[in-house]
Amino acid sequence: MMASPKSMRAIAACGTCALAFAMTGCGASFEGSGSKDAASAEQLAMHADDPWAVEVGADAKAKSEFQLADGVYTGKGLGMDGLITVTLAVQDNHISCVEVTQEGETQSVGGFEAIRDGKYAAMIDAEQGPDIDCISGATITTAGVRQAATDALIQAGADLQPVEVGGGTTIDLVQKGE
Hints:
Helix content is 39%, strand content 15%. It contains six helices and three strands. The protein has a three-stranded antiparallel β-sheet. The radius of gyration is 27 Å and the shape is rod-shaped.
């Protein structure tokens, strides 16, 4: 027995509705995003507090506890995925962090934003030394910044010991691949 044209249209309409309903789960869940993960990140960013929004104030007249020679010094440290450099200017025993750079730190993870936004530089200025607080989610990057700041201060004459990377190796050995 053959179905009537009216029932065939009803079956086709039901099938079309079912297909359309099933396909709605395949699209992005947030306008403008390329994936559901990106949509979740966008939505979270719209509602989450900025973890780096805390202001770090530095005293312009503060002096370092170390006896330092005036000049500009660049130290090296090892971050999560690459080299971190810290450039410090020393004048009259006052430390100013000129620049913190990174090679290979992962975007949107841990210390990348803190480097980009100048938070590490502000922390070094406020502390007048390498003993900065760790940033949540950026433990290894923070250790690399501390290592680089210590290296720069040793060059300036600070009585500090070089910071070692895991396993007791210094940054020079890591760079040479030893």
